[in-house]
Amino acid sequence: MEQPKEFVFDIPVGAGVATRANADGPPATPKDAATVILVRDGADGVEVFLQHRVKGMPFAGGMTVFPGGGVDTRDADASVAWAGPEPSWWAARFGCDDALARALTCAAVRETFEESGVLLAGGADTVLTDVTPYAAARQALETREVSLAGFLADAGLTLRADLLRPWAHWITPEQEPRRYDTRFYVAKLPEGQEADGATSEASASGWQRPGDAIADAREGRRMLMPPTWLTLSELAQFATADEVLAAPREIVRIAPTLIRENDHVRVVLEPR
């Protein structure tokens, strides 16, 4: 799909978009991060799992987002049991080296489990349907008491990279005080598993059709960042979750520029 070069949406002043104090100084160095777009087939078409971030969060507070977060140094542990496309395959799609590709994919699986309770793991050729035995491990991952590799090894589980697909690559605008270099993945909710909102980072969560989420944003019932808005617009074009996973994607890094115009923010998308 061809990305639009520019689109405009309204953000209330002080909500969702921050401006760094040293605007004339060098921009903050972006931190590597991974986001997973969880999709499923609903009664009326594709649904996506969304979370409303707690307002006090230092980044994207009060915004509606997909599960995800920053890469932990331990996500690069090469000992993790792995099934599916190798790190080199992900590296070619996301424009990075193999070590970072491994860390990003591990972070995607870890953050999805921490924030939604969905665990993209199993055996070499099986996928978990019941994650209830791993509730304590989920909490330990969130508090960083254990690493993903350590948890999977102790549980005898394999990371199922084949359940993920590459979707997009966004970098936070230079005007923001906190910046992330984020790779977006998409995954279908595994059969038998349920997504929940049992995370300290979200005040609410749930499944919604992409078009309905955009309508809520237009009518002021939720706030969306540019990557979330555009991704939802893309997802709204598909009839089933399998179609989403099968969609061909050319991953181009998008580096938006924010231009403030009174109470509006104009977002210019710049592929780089």
From TrEMBL:
It comes from the Bacteria. One of its GO terms (molecular function) is hydrolase activity. The keyword Metal-binding applies. Residues 30-230 form the Nudix hydrolase domain. The keyword NAD does not apply. Its cofactor is Mn(2+); Mg(2+). Keywords: Hydrolase, Magnesium, Manganese, Metal-binding. This is NUDIX hydrolase. It comes from Amycolatopsis melonis.
